[in-house]
Amino acid sequence: MNEVPSYVGPREPDAIPEYVDGLPNLSGSEDLIRRIRAEARPRLGFADPPDLEHIDAAFAVALHMHQPLRPADGPLTEAPLIGNLAWMTDHQDIGDNHNAPTFAWCYRRMAEFVRQLLDEGRRPRVMLDYSGTLLHGLRQMHLDDVLDDLRYLATDPQAREAVEWLGTTWGHAVAPSTPVQDFRLHVQAWQHHFAGLFGLEALSRVRGFSPPEMALPNHPDVAYEFVRTLLDCGYEWVLVQEHTVEELDGSELSDPYIPRRLVCTNSRGQSASITAIVKTQGSDTKLVGQMQPYYEAKSLSRRTLAGQTVPPLVTQIADGENGGVMMNEFPDKYLEVMRESSGTTVRPVNVTEYLQALHALGIAPDALPAIRPLQREASMDGGSWTADVSWVRGYDNVLIPMERASAEFHARMLAQDVPTDDPRYRRALFHLLASQTSCYRYWGQGEWTDYGAELARRALEAAAV
């Protein structure tokens, strides 16, 4: 593992370090973060909130950024863990790895676009979702300039009006097939890492959650624990894929352009609910790359919600770096649309400011129409935009070692009340979370499943110390 500084990040009251003992800070400050999140529950202040009474429609776009960890070159059981971007950078003669420098630019370029548009007096908006493994990989590569640009987007008073950061899981773990107790650890670990990078105040502003692969559990008990985890970690809303939810009576979702209340009931009859924003259509980077949500919003009219008329909201998320359209066409199109739409009746928004504007109109979360996870086939696969990909079937060679590592972690660490700031706990947690990255299954059998099994072996070994 490349050497990293023992402390990197902003200094503020109660600041927590980005790295501890050479590892990203993923645990140890649970009580502090819980307090910060609880104190942040009141509405955020926005200098220029959207005037929902005087616009016809709104649109929101989010960029998902992720790179997994992988063993470097050398014997599989001995090679240090590096970010996949580092491996691409060192092997640009293989496949599409020549895109590595462009990917690195994609991870920072929103700072350039936001600065430019703010200087022009525009009203840019974008939401960002960065996995913990990517953030660690960027620091490990000493791409400090990239992280400095991200810090600007997270902390600058003007930029944070334009940019909404979304929480996610640290290791890009999919909720349906990740043990529920481990999924909670992923969510908490991401919050630790983000606070170490950008500060506790920046973390207090993170109100929405972006599930990796848009994967929503539909097993009743897993879905209930999914929502409980988000609520307990201070999240107010979650992004869901259109075809993973349904009306409470089992009918097809009637209107994806208004906020909903996702209700999950477990096998004991306990229910938990959270505001849900529906991402329409499947996974296609062209939808965001060509700013399709803006043009779709222009075709919509105001809706009735809780007895009031409100502008509908078109929401899309896509990988922020993958594909020619996103790499090459998105920059000019994003700038064009933000310039064209700023100040018009079809307004770019971020979701939290839109929800707070609804609340200002008297529309509280419990007044939103309820939906539930798709019930037609409750399974550990759950539902996501990857309807043709199973996160479970055919992956015993990854899942069995992962489950063993999870069981060992909980037996050796949690059951024995090992403090979460203990170096043994931190090292075991790092390897456990890294082993549960979806990429080790997404790309099918081969070297990536071998990497997943190896990381699970390391997690098992670390937990057993």
Short account of what is shown:
The chain has 465 residues and is α/β, with parallel strands linked by helices. It folds into two domains: 341 residues, Alpha-Beta Barrel (7-stranded beta/alpha barrel), CATH 3.20.110.20; 68 residues, no CATH class. Helix content is 41%, strand content 16%.
Low-confidence stretches: 6-10, 383-394
Structural class: alpha/beta
Instruction: Compute the separation of the termini in Å.
Output: 19 Å
Query: What would you say the CATH architecture of the largest domain is?
Result: Alpha-Beta Barrel
Strand content: 15-25%
The CATH class of the largest domain is Alpha Beta
Describe the 3D structure.
It is a single chain. The protein is of the alpha/beta class. The chain has 2 domains: 33-373, 7-stranded beta/alpha barrel; 396-463, no CATH class. 41% of the residues lie in helices and 16% in strands. The longest helix is centred in the middle third of the chain and has 19 residues, at 180-198. It is globular and about 60 Å long. It starts with 18 loop residues before the first strand and ends with a helix.
